[in-house]
């Protein structure tokens, strides 16, 4: 069974008297362990599709199924639990909590899950080492570079071992060298731990690294290329 199944997905917005179809009948399946890039110009629907898969927005019509669960049938509490237990998120603005250290930011999801302190520490220290932040555990976001902050965001996303990580323009605020390093890091995590990644991106570096590129135009899938 695919980890993600999207069928007939439509998302409409009202702009004054005009109805805009951000997504228009999208069908898509994502298999476990994929490293997939959603690409397309601004307004093509890629971020809207990512938000639908992440249960951050409701569809106008159609279905999104994660791990065999139809999101349209779940309550708000069940959707929140699904996001907490099964999904990880990486945003271009990092979304770290400024008053927390790198360690505390990375353990945040595990705390919400109620994981015991010893297990949290083991997982977080292991994960920070995986993303190259050993020795920086006690630094707050203001004491880290942009690339280091994004590494903390990656650590937070993967510390709970989610089934699926959704990344919205994760390299957008990084210089070229740091962006390359981050992509290599995420690809290594994908290959080593079989973490499934889906990116919404404009970055050619991400598209080059991806093993599958799904191109959207006007809310529809125009091309779906596997390498």
What would a concise description of this structure say?
This protein has a single domain, classed as P-loop containing nucleotide triphosphate hydrolases (Rossmann fold, 3-Layer(aba) Sandwich), CATH 3.40.50.300. Helix content is 37%, strand content 29%.
List the helices and strands and how they pair.
Elements: E1 4-15, E2 18-30, E3 35-39, H1 46-53, E4 61-66, E5 69-70, H2 76-86, E6 87-91, H3 102-113, H4 117-130, H5 146-159, E7 164-168, H6 176-193, E8 196-200, H7 204-209, E9 212-217, E10 220-226
Helix pairs in contact: 3-4, 3-5, 4-5, 5-6
Give a structural overview.
The protein is of the alpha/beta class and 227 residues long. It has one domain: P-loop containing nucleotide triphosphate hydrolases (Rossmann fold), CATH 3.40.50. It has helices at residues 46-53, 76-86, 102-113, 117-130, 146-159, 176-193, 204-209; strands at 4-15, 18-30, 35-39, 61-66, 69-70, 87-91, 164-168, 196-200, 212-217, 220-226. A 6-stranded mixed sheet has the order 6-7-8-3-9-10, sandwiched between helices. It has a 4-stranded antiparallel sheet with strand order 2-1-4-5. β1 (4-15) and β2 (18-30) form a beta hairpin. α3 packs across α4 and α5 runs parallel beside α6 (176-193). The longest helix has 18 residues, at 176-193. It is globular and about 50 Å long. The two termini are 21 Å apart. The model has no long low-confidence stretch (mean pLDDT 93).
Average pLDDT score: 93
In the CATH scheme, the class would be: Alpha Beta
Overall outline: globular
Element pattern in H and E: EEEHEEHEHHHEHEHEE
Alpha-beta classification:
alpha/beta
Q: Provide the domain count.
A: 1
Architecture in CATH?
A: 3-Layer(aba) Sandwich
By DSSP (H or I, 4+ residues per run), the number of helices equals 7
The named CATH superfamily:
P-loop containing nucleotide triphosphate hydrolases
CATH topology: Rossmann fold
Beta content comes to: 25-35%
Helix content: 25-40%
Q: How far apart lie the N and C ends?
A: 21 Å
Q: Which runs of at least 5 residues are low in confidence (pLDDT < 50)?
A: none
Give a short account of the largest sheet: 6 strands, mixed
Give the strand tally: 10
Radius of gyration from CA coordinates: 17 Å
Trace the largest sheet across and list its strands.
6-7-8-3-9-10
């Amino acid at each position: 069974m695919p980890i993600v199944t999207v069928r007939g997905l439509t998302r409409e917005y009202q702009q004054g008297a005009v109805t805009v179809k951000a997504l228009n009948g999208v069908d898509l399946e994502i298999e476990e362990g994929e490293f997939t890039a959603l690409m397309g110009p601004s307004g093509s629907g890629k971020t809207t599709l990512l938000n639908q898969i992440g249960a951050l927005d409701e569809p106008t019509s159609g279905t999104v199924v994660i791990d065999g669960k139809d999101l349209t049938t779940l309550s708000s509490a069940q959707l929140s639990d699904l996001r907490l237990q099964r999904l990880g998120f990486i945003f271009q603005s990092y979304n770290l909590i400024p008053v927390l250290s790198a360690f505390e930011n990375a353990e945040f999801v595990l705390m919400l899950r109620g994981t015991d302190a010893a297990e949290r520490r083991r997982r977080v220290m292991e994960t920070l080492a995986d993303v190259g932040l050993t020795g920086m555990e006690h630094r707050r976001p203001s004491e880290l570079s942009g690339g280091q902050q994004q590494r903390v965001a990656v650590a937070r996303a993967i510390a709970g071992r989610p089934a699926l990580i959704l990344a919205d323009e994760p390299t957008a605020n990084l210089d070229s060298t740091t962006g390359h390093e981050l992509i290599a890091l995420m690809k290594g995590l994908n290959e080593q731990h079989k973490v499934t990644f889906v990116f919404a991106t404009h970055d050619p570096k991400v598209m080059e690294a991806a093993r599958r590129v799904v191109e959207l135009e006007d809310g529809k899938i125009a091309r779906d290329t596997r390498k």
